[in-house]
Amino acid sequence: MTRKGFIFDLDGVIVDTAKYHYLAWKKLAESIGISFTEEDNEQLKGVSRVRSLEKILSWGNKELQEDKFMELLAVKNNDYLEYIEKMDESELLPDVKRVLHFLLDSGQPVALGSASKNARKILREVHLYAAFEAIVDGNDVTNAKPDPEVFLRAAEQIGVNPADAIVFEDSLAGVQAANIAGMTSIGIGNPKILHEADYVFSDFTEMSNEFLHKLIHQ
Ligand code: B16
Ligand code: MG
Fold first, then answer.
1. Which of these is catalytic: 9, 40, 137, 170?
2. Does the chain have fewer CB atoms within 10 Å around its N or its C terminus?
3. Which domains does the chain have, with CATH numbers?
4. Could you confirm whether 67 is annotated as catalytic?
5. Alpha-carbon distance 56 to 27, whole Å?
6. 128-174 confidence digits (pLDDT tens)
7. Pick from 149, 130, 127: nearest CA to 140
8. Taking the complete model, does pTM exceed 0.70, yes or no?
9. What is the Å distance from ligand 1's center to 2 Cα?
10. Is the dihedral of CA 129, 132, 138, 139 positive or negative?
């Protein structure tokens, strides 16, 4: 048995912030005459803020000057921040705490690997900041998922080889990043979207402690 390490994505795995990203992107897209649906939002999950705006503009066949682009990024983030200012522990997704505490009680190193630049703020608001031995977020990486950089850095910081790292992810881009890194990928969400993952659970309530025990000891 080798030493394992567990890496959690944030948005969509620990907290359901996707709905807030959706509302903020929809408002922004529509303000510049681009329609934006929940299906569009699905394609932005795990995708960095800059890349998300680039995608929205390409869907609307629009190009912007650099300063306008930066202004819109700030507008979107300010709207998003207004939603997440009010977050508290009640917005943790079901059984996140059980899974996290099972791993911590079993002595497993646990890290966060998120594309979000707001990750540290959100973790503090839901009182989970101290649970993570390492936090790697959108401020620390230059390459967005599906590039494996965020997970490789997280594994390095908790001292585990990529092959011994297990990633929980809700986005296809994130599952692909974990796979490219050579890690075990566990999709949390829709199996149709996350079919490239090694395992998929609709949410953590479906994941037993026995399954976690097997991952630790395999
Ligand atoms: P921010 P994750 C990602 O977080 C979100 O899934 C994605 O929708 C968002 O655009 C990205 O963070 C950047 O977030 O604007 O807060 O920097 O799922 O990788 O935890
Ligand atoms: Mg996510």
1. 9
2. N
3. 5-15+89-217 (3.40.50.1000), 18-84 (1.10.150.240)
4. no
5. 12
6. 999 999 999 999 999 989 999 999 999 999 999 999 999 999 999 99
7. 149
8. yes
9. 31
10. positive
